[in-house]
Structure formats: C-alpha cells, structure tokens
Amino acid sequence: MNLVKFWPLPVAAIVVAAGGYAFASMQAPADLDDSLSHASDHGLYAVSIAPAVDPVPVGQLHAWTVAVTTPDGAPVDATVAFDGGMPQHGHGLPTVPKVMGKDAEGRAIIGGVRFNMPGWWELKVHVDGAAGDDTATFNIAL
Amino acid sequence: MRKIVGMASAAALVAIFALAQVVSAGGQAGGWNAEQRQRIASLSLAALPPMPADPSNAVADDPAAAALGKRLFADTRLSANGKVACATCHDPDKQFQDGLAVGHGVGTGNRRTMPIAGTAYSPWMFWDGRADSQWAQALGPLENPLEHGSDRASVVRVVVEHYAADYAAVFGAPVEAQPVDRVFANVGKAIAAFERTILPGGTRFDAYADAIGRGEASALLSAEETAGLGLFMGKGKCLDCHNGPLFTDNSFHNIGVPATPDDLGRMAGAAKVQADPFNCLGPFSDARPEQCMELAFIKAEGEELRGAFKTPSLRGVSGRAPFMHAGQLASIADVLAHYNAAPAATVGHSELTRINLTAEELTALAAFLDTLGSDEPNGD
C-alpha cells in the first residue's frame, strides 16, 4: 500500500486497505490529454484534481482532492461533484464517490473512488458556483 | 492454519523451478516487455495484500471462533431435514463447491454454488453481492427454504444443545442469555472466521509469474500456455475484469450469459444489501459506521447493474465446470466461444465486444487457464 503519509486524518480513513494492488503502466490513446489541472469545458473555472494515493491503485477505494478557482486563480466558493467512467467500455465507476469535506487548503476531499480495471478512465468534475455550472474533464491511464 | 502454499507443493514447485532454470539457462527472457512483466507479477499470489480486516466481525481473526465455525460449516443439524450443511454444497474436496449447475439443498435453487477460497478479500458476497460480509452471507442459506431451509430459532436451539460451551467461550456470554437474532448473527461470525482461513493454494502459474517479476526467464509455462497468457492480457481483454492475484475485480458486469428471466443480478442485489439488517451498518455489526466504506460508496443505481453478476475468481477454474452464475456454460471451450462471439444480453446490455480469436488462440487461452490450478484450496 502506498498511502500519502502526511494527509489529514479524514482522508487516511477513506483510503482503506481493501485488497488493492497497483498498476503503474500506461495503456490509452497516445494523444490523450492527461493533465490533471486545466480549465473547465466552457472556461468558467480552473480545476485541479489530485489522487491521495500514488501510484493510483486499481481495485482499492481511495480519495482524490479537487481545487477550483476562477480562470485567474482567485478562490471560488462552489459545489463540486465527482464522477467517472471508461469511454471504451461504456461503464461508469463501480462506486459513487462523495465529497467528504475540505482539507486545510480548501480543496474538496472526494472519498470512495475505485478503478476496477486498468486502462483509460475519464473523470468529470461538475462545478456549480457563482459563475454558473461547468464540467471539467480529465483522463487517466492505469 | 493459514498456509498459502502447502509444504509439499512448495517443495515440488522449487524442484520444478530449479529444473526450469537449467532448461532455460541462457534462453529467452520470456519475450515480455517491462509493462507486461509488471502485469504478470500483479497476478501472482505473492502480490496478494494482507487480508483486509473485517471490522464488522469482532471474532473474525479469533482461532477459537474459526474452530467453532468449521464445525458449524459441516453440521447438517442446522437444516430442516437434517441432511444439509454448508459443506454439502461447498464441498472441501471440490474447491468448496459442488460441480452442479445450480445448488441442491432441501430444494433446488437457481444459481450455481460459488467457491469460497479468498472470499475474505471480496467486499460483496453472492453472484449479485446482496451481502456485504462473510458473516452476513452465511445467514442467508440457513433460512433459505431451498438450501438449509431452517429458521433462526431452530439454529439457536442447535447452538444451545450442542455448542453452548464453545459459544460462551468465543462470544463471552452464555447463549441462553442472548436474543435469538444476536445468536444467529454470531453463528455467521464464527463461520466467517473459519472461511477467512480458506485461501487459494499456489500454482505453477504463480511460480512462473514470480520469476518473470524478478526479470528472469522461466520455462515453467509451455510456449502454448505463455501464448495464452499473452492473449489473456492483450487481445482477449480478460484482464479488464479478471485482474489482481485473485483474477477478479470484485465488481459486477453483464457479459451476456443467457440469464434466468427476472434475474436482475446486481440491480436487485444492491438494493437488498442496503436493506439487510445484518449489513455493516446494522445493529449486529461490530463496526463503527465510518468503517462501512463499501456501503457508503455503493453504486446502487444505473442501467449497467441490470443482469450484472460478480466477476468470479479464475484460480482453479478449470476444475469447476459447469460455469457462470447458473451453470449455463458446460466447458471452458464453451466459455471461450462465448467471449469470442460476445452475444447480446437477454437481460440488460452486455459489456463484451468480440475478441475474434482463432481456434489456435482459443486453445492457447484454455491451456493458460489450466495453469491456474484445479486442486483444492487449503482449508484447515
């Protein structure tokens, strides 16, 4: 288990040892944008996501954090929701991740993420804030 | 009690391995690239993490509870007709299953008996995952009219008459002093403690995977079996769902096996486990609510749950015909033909796409599955 050591307690509790094992290999379309920090689809927000476990595990429940700012980097008070799936397989995440609270830097802590197969996963963060509703889309390859 | 590889088979593997080293000295490095080597190593029993704790069961790792559970597992007095025990269907000599298309107890059910080895690693029990722990699972068959056909009051009577001393020693209270539902739940907890000791044994594949993981060449698998492993991870896409050391993602998928009409699979199972009074959040669980992670994040809605069933482990699979949740497919050849054709589902939508393997490739894939062993797991 590779857990982030200096993570606040609630996240440590979310990152349970549920019989996981890690794949660090890559297997996804070569031209995939795999940046975890970019503008939302309509440019309303800048969104950054980060896994609480490195490398991102296959099979194990773990947490992510989500940081949302205006495009110029000013803090935003927004509601976020986290979702994901495999475009090549037509299925979503095997769990329903939930916002568990905020960490010391004000990032939303998302608990209950599980990737149950290696391959290309799409992650979507829905942001509902003063500037309106928008969605940021990310890709990861496991 | 908890041995992953029996002493005898470990010694045999060492001997085979030494021989293989001689045979392949200076030979091919298996032809795998770094990524493939890592994936192969990820399938070895050596990559199995420590068994997850079961906070909902305070006696999960108590050897006295496991000893009690082992006796309960084999006790036919816990059935309506005095003839059915867990071990009737989960025969320790047959990988803890029965080789039948559907289970036969007091009556005949509509699902196939599942093997038990390694289920302590699974967050959900049954083909549809309608129980969230081994102990909650064990309570199902006792009151299922087609399996043990008993009821909790009768189960408690058997404990009072035959297990009173052991029960009091394990659970710290005389059985007569406890409410029926509490004793019933504790019977499940003792059986679960026993089931936690049932693990798959090491296979020729594991010895091969460990060597490959160390970057060594190995002749432990034949050229055909090695080709089958390549197809399993590549063109066959089997690793999408049958991944990790137990060859299962512990999730639910619709793969278009002809389903029993009205069997909604996970769609019904997800609703049932949330309503189960014996689940992790219920009054008989020893867990704090925040320890019930699986229920907290359960996916309980969505069209993809319709006709979806739990991905079975493939360890020892060749010795467990017939296959699938109701024994729909008679042989490994039939299973592989099913994956090759990827037929549309009769209930819901199949996730499979055609893999177009040739006859030769199908044979190689079957040969690879045989390397995952077919002997009994260790159960004592």
Task: Please provide a written account of the structure.
The complex is a heterodimer of chains A (142) and B (380). With 142 residues, chain A is mainly β. Chain A has one domain: Immunoglobulin-like (Sandwich), CATH 2.60.40.3340. Chain A is 4% helix and 44% strand. In chain A, the strands form three sheets. Chain A has a five-stranded antiparallel beta sheet. A four-stranded antiparallel beta sheet of chain A has the order 7-6-10-11, with no helix packed on it. Chain B is mainly alpha-helical and 380 residues long. Chain B has three domains: 1-31; 39-50 and 201-263 and 306-370, Cytochrome c-like domain (Cytochrome Bc1 Complex, Chain D, domain 2), CATH 1.10.760.10; 63-195, Cytochrome Bc1 Complex, Chain D, domain 2, CATH 1.10.760. Chain B has 14 helices and two strands, in the order ααααααααααβααβαα. Chain B has helices spanning 7-24, 34-42, 63-73, 86-89, 134-143, 152-162, 164-171, 180-195, 204-213, 223-233, 266-275, 293-296, 332-341, 359-370; strands spanning 252-253, 309-310. Chain B has a two-stranded antiparallel ribbon with strand order 1-2. In chain B, helix 3 (63-73) crosses helix 8 (180-195) and helix 13 packs across helix 14. The radius of gyration of chain B is 22 Å and the shape is globular. In chain B, 50% of the residues are buried. The interface between A and B is large, with 35 and 37 residues.
